[in-house]
Amino acid sequence: MYQQMIFVNLAVSDVAASKKFFTELGYTLNPQFSSDECACVVISDTIVAMMLSKEHYANFTQKEIADSTKTSETLICLSAESREKVDELVDRAVAAGATSGKVQDYGTMYGRAFDDLDGHTWEIMWMDASEVQG
Questions:
Q1: How many Cβ atoms from other residues are within 10 Å of residue 28's Cβ?
Q2: Helices and strands in the chain, H and E counts
Q3: What single-letter DSSP state applies at residue 58?
Q4: Tell me: the pLDDT tens digits for 37-61?
Q5: What is the pTM of this model?
């Protein structure tokens, strides 16, 4: 069965720094689609983040590239298998240079956010699946 994939493309100031940051979080790079201009970060079998140099990113748009340290252009939310995994990933991100963001604790839903090296906001969320099943 076909599984649709998502490729999140983000403009970054320093591709090498982004490669280091995301591998420190435990993600892998796909060398086939990585270069000095792009880091292909494999998050899961169906989620890939493409960290493109601003110059390379500009080849794909005619719009001005947002300064994500000043403007929110997107919120990227990833699921986690437990509250502990949320904390583990966000703590690793902060140790690797991210800025810690908002904590959301609703009992059956728990999340934390961080801004990566370029200011892109990543939310990591856990949900008690038994509470959302109908």
A1: 11
A2: 4, 8
A3: G
A4: 999 999 999 999 999 999 999 999 9
A5: 0.90
